[in-house]
Amino acid sequence: MLRTLDQNPESLVVPFPGIVLSPQEARIERGEPVGLIGDAARSKRARIHSMIEGFRERPIRLNVERARLLTESMRQTEGQPTVLRWGKALAHILEHHPIHIEDDELLVGSAGPSGRYAVVYCENAGYGRFYTRDNELTVSRPGDPIIITEADIAVLKNEVLPYWDNHQYNAALMKALPADTKRLMEKIFIVTSTAAARSMLAWAHDYGKVLNRGIGSIKREAETKLDAINPLDTQACVEDKPFLEAVILVCDAMVTFAHRHAALARTMAAAEPRAERREELLEIARVCDRVPEHPATTLREATQSQWFVQIVSRLEQSIGGVVGNGRIDQYLYPYYKKDLEAGRISDDDALVLLESIWVGMARTVDLYAKPGEPSLTDGFAHWEATTIGGVSRDGRDATNELSYLILQSKREFPLHYPDLSARIHSRTPDAFLHAIAETIKEGTGFPKLFFDDEIIPSLLAKGAEVAEANDYCVTGCTEVKMLNRDVVATGCAWVNLGAILEMTLNSGRLKFYSDDRIGVVTGDASGFATFDELWTAFSAQAENVMRHTFIQQFVADKLKSSFIASPMFSMLHDLCTADCKDIHAGPIKNGLYLGFFDIIGFGTVIDSLAAIKKLVFDDRTLTMDELLTALDADFAGHEAVRQMCLNAPKYGNNDPYADNIGRDIEETFALLAHSQTSAFGGELDLRYVSVTSHVPLGMIVAATPDGRRSGEPLSESVSPSQGADVHGPTATLASIASTKCAQYKERAARLLNMKLSPASVAGEIGTKKVMALIRSVCDMKMWHLQFSIINRETLLAAQANPEKYRNLLVRVAGYSAYFVDLTPALQNEIIRRTEHTA
Amino acid sequence: MIADAASGNGTRGWIFNIQKFSLHDGAGIRTVVFLKGCPLACRWCSNPESQAYRPELLYARDRCIGEHECDRCIRVCKAAAIGRDADGKAAIDRSLCNNCGDCAGACPSKALEVSGTLVSVDEVIRAVEQDSGFYVRSGGGLTLSGGEPLAQDSFAERLLATARRRGLDTAIETSGFCRWEALQRVAPLVDQLFYDIKCLDTEKHRVATGVSNEIVLDNFQKLRRDFPATVVVVRTPIIPGLNDSREDIQAIARFIDSAGGATAHELLAYHGFGEPKYQRLGRTYPLGCVETASDESMAVLRKAAACGGDRR
Ligand code: SF4
Ligand code: SF4
Asked: Is residue A384 annotated as a catalytic residue, yes or no?
């Protein structure tokens, strides 16, 4: 039986990565006190240690203030240009949002109340997702992950929600879609659009610009342009002017926001009994008076300025995955170096400043989480992507002392922030790679790795200049952005490849949707005489689903600028300021619109097609009727058929039988992508980034010919089906490489998670092997790789569910062995030992 | 890869596994090719399917679907060697089974599988070279293991020679229980040689492995004498009750020294990984219930080994 789904569209918004439990996270789950790891770190950065102590026990409060102020302003500006309305609204928020300074903190500024908080973005689809239960906005009860008070509810019900019920982009978007596209989009989890779930795709800001020039300079530039507008230039008067006015308003409000903090710090200093803290507060006041208005002169000022930009960005709007930190080791380096040379700071002082940013990020909670599940409190994943390493704009290795320091922090800072990404290229120094390998071995899965040798040429092919491509940063979980060249802003869609397969086998119908014909008529599958006929049907179903996906994206792009504008975001983007246009109001001159779509269930569908090809058409051990009957019964009473399916060729084993089908699927979608031009003249790239969408998307897909049962998750991202890759990671990598159609430029991220046991990479020898593996993966021109060094929980899960963990290799002296092949007694022994390692 | 007819790379041999991404069988990231057949029968052997020189039927009962939905194996077995057990699952009568493998071909769940494939040198090298990119970066390559790889000495020699010629790093793991001529021929073909010395007491050795250790020790002395430059790592599995005393280990260490030393002497704690495999072969586990040596006692033994004399 198919499980029933919560049909409420709010629940369709899927959280970003389900981060694998690291030893640190496991420590948190076991209730051990959170703190910096290692005695040295603890004593030298006592401030940070005390800030994160007891962190998890602190309540999460809802921030409805931003929503209230936004709505208040929006009500007063109806009918005005969108960008000016959002400029006024952000100014209103920055001038009136409550502020506070936490005990002990050096960097100040928060987008919510003290402690942990979650901002309500009432303008987006699914604002009701903070409902705690039954989709009712009710006061929270003890044990709920987020505290919702009576006062919060009053504000939302009386002041906020009634307005947005009539002004939401999401509702307008659904109305604007052609009838047949709307019909498909309403059937959730076939094509899951994120266009209206966030205001922006995952992005970072050009922090360097603020640090070097100051907001004051950005304001002056806008003023000069405004003064220079020829009154007879009608376009400029109607379009450029409101943009420039919005920028000026926002610049002033940002400075005001910082000055409010300065004033608060002075007031607190006056009442502060401890002399030391009094001095700190006065220094906070001095710094906030200076930045972000003026250029930063020290690392302290630079980090405070960066943090203000982040906070204002969070108050402006929601950015996918929450706003990224960009190439932090690059833009902060000059300040760090100058301070160090002047003897103003030590490395530990620098770490305290960086970790102050991490703590600030950790205080925010993303409301993308599933409601009503207290156990998910720590799973409120958000990832302020933070990039280190890679090449510089001029193509030299960019690694510096800060890159190493940030890795050190990643080993010692116990929370899963920041979401650290290391860029690897063919000349990445061994020393840096060594530090990366050592950090990966901590078992948190960080840093994630991005490979310049694949990404930079890909960006060049899409039209970037060499310097821009060299300077890309990571945003979101696997996206990359060139901060002054990319201009894509609207969220993109997840496409359910599993559903397309089911339509292929059922002439356009899906069992979950009561056998409604959702796809096109491709004929009774039992009538297919050859695999080619089946393939033709698959292509037709794929084309139909993609057609609607493209239409949806086009309408979403075109419609958005009437609803959303982001003046602060735009004023930090060279192309937006040059064109005097808000980022959403495309087309932006010279901008590259690198949109995308993700196909979900790649492994599941490759394996399914391979099984049909092998069992039905090549070996003829099954008829199509027998297979369809077994699928229809969800394999109940057809275990032999299911076993044949499970033992057919699988993607991930360097077996051309399966991999060639994967290549054909990639080519089909790459060609569809190639045929398209997006609303503002850009491209929509084929990606494989499921985050955790493969779980809900799997819920609507009936049993598949790879042996997967109805409702089970689809395969994840570009990875093989769970447990299908039984020949080790090198074979998996080879399969992934051989499904890539490098001849098309309309391709982007392929997300790959790789599991290794901690023991297999133990010691210095293990570190060296991880380094070699990374070098090889760089040679293979992969986009992304993240390791999970398997922890105890996984081994226990493997004991309970061996089928899913068939490919888990564990290391013993002298041998490597598959965990599930061992007797329970030995498994326990391994579990015990793994704990030692961790 | 182009078949290398002149060197006779059509030569075939029996293997039972090719394991990629092996991190602990020589330098770097390696591919281990397991040759089938072994003259020893160590009681702790973790790969019992490696021992016989012919294909063998493996039966994993937990994977059998059972009579309600499947009886394919019973229908195809010409020797009538398969019946049903009390739960309706397949039951093999090993005395009737001739290991023909027909049932494995018919089994949908791979409950029945045949261990042992006859492959050519070319086929093996082709599989091994799939990971060339990883060897280049890690210094890895091909490792021959077993079974006893030198039990198929011509096949082993051809594999190693071909790998060498094609620029691959090579290693072999041997029990040393082979004809001296075999060892003599492969020693110049390997970059690293792993050599098992399990126990110096001839009688204990015979009881535990089924053979005397005289050939093993003799070959080792000749190896060190004739190939002093070869990288040789001696490995001793620590089996409680057999060789887990300091005296046992020191005796081995002294012997190594007297023979001219070794690059390293590694002690590996015994782990009963093979136990489920014995069940699949329809055999009982010969070692029974033996504890794994503790970390502490391993540390003591490692120290004893190190005191045995100079290592190179
Ligand atoms: S291997 Fe051959 S003889 Fe043995 S049980 Fe199977 S079919 Fe029968
Ligand atoms: S063919 Fe395989 S699954 Fe079927 S009864 Fe025989 S052993 Fe069991």
From this structure: no
For residue A251, indicate whether it is catalytic: no
Cβ partners under 8 Å of residue A349, min gap 6: none
Phi, psi for A484 (deg, rounded to 5): -115, 20
Nearest to B109 among A647, A776, A813 (CB): A647
**Domains assigned to chain B:** 2-53+120-307 (3.20.20.70), 56-115 (3.30.70.20)
* DSSP secondary structure of A327-392: EHHHHSHHHHHHHHHTT---HHHHHHHHHHHHHHHHHB--TTSPTT-GGGGGG-----EEEEESB-
Interstrand relation of A683-688 and A326-327 (parallel, antiparallel or unpaired): unpaired
Output the pLDDT for position A141: 75
Q: What is the pLDDT of residue A543?
A: 98
- Catalytic hit among A280, A293, A468, A479: A479
| Test mutation, A426, A614, A622, A643, chain B, max B CBs within 10 A | A643
C-beta of residue A446 within 8 angstroms of C-beta of residue A420 = yes
Cα separation, A693 vs A492, in Å, equals: 13
For the segment A203-244, what is each residue's pLDDT rounded down to a tens digit? 999 999 999 999 999 999 999 999 999 999 999 999 999 999
| Residue found by looking up tokens 């992950």 in the block | A145
Buried b (16+ CB within 10 A) or exposed e, B283-300: eebebeebebbeeebbee
Q: Which numbered ligand comes closest to the C-alpha of B85?
A: 2
Per-residue H/E/C for B115-153: ECEEEEHHHHHHHHHCCHHHHHHHCCEEEEEECCHHHHH
Phi, psi angle pair for A373, to nearest 5°: -125, 90
Query: For residue B171, which phi and psi values (nearest 5 degrees)?
Result: -145, 160
Strand partners, A810: A817
Ligand 1, closest atom to CA B99? 1
Q: Determine the Cα–Cα distance for residues A726 and A739; give it in Å rounded to an integer.
A: 18
In Å, how far from its chain's centre is CA A677? 25
The answer to whether the CB atoms of B273 and A734 lie below 8 A apart is no
CB A166 within 8 A of CB A122: no
- Determine contact, residues A107/A303, Cβ cutoff 8 Å: yes
| The two structure tokens encoding residue A69 | 């102020």
- Token look-up 């046991």 returns A757
Work out the average pLDDT over A498-516: 94
Q: Which residue of chain A has the CA closest to B134?
A: A776
User: What's the pLDDT at A380?
Assistant: 53
pLDDT score for A807:
55
Residue B210, judged by CB atoms within 10 A of its CB (0-12, 13-18, 19+), counts as: middle
Residues with CB under 6 A from ligand 2: B 64-65, 70-73, 90, 106-109, 111-112
Q: Which of the 8 DSSP states describes residue B2?
A: -
Q: How confident is the model at residue A7 (pLDDT cuts 50, 70, 90)?
A: very low
Residues A270, A233: Cα–Cα separation, whole Å: 53
Give the E-state strand segments of A373-510 in sequence order.
385-389, 419-424, 448-451, 473-475, 479-481, 493-496, 509-510
| Neighbour tally for A745: CB within 10 Å | 18
Averaged pLDDT, A686-699: 84
- Asked whether the beta carbons of residue B23 and residue A816 sit closer than 8 angstroms, the reply is yes
Q: Among partner residues B46, B138, B273, which is closest to A769 by beta-carbon distance?
A: B138
Residue A37 burial (C-beta neighbours within 10 Å; 0-12, 13-18, 19+) = middle
* Model confidence pTM above 0.95: no
Say which residues have a Cβ less than 8 Å from residue A397's Cβ, sequence separation at least 6. Answer: A391, A425, A427, A428, A429
Per the prediction, chain A carries an average pLDDT of: 87
Sort out which chain A residues have CB atoms less than 8 A from B72's CB and list them: 640
State the angle between helix axes of A401-412 and A430-439 in degrees (0 to 180), rounded to the nearest 10.
10
Which residue, among B32, B115, B137, would best test binding to A if mutated, counting the most A CBs under 10 Å from its CB?
A: B137
- Whether B204 and B245 have beta carbons less than 8 Å apart is answered as no
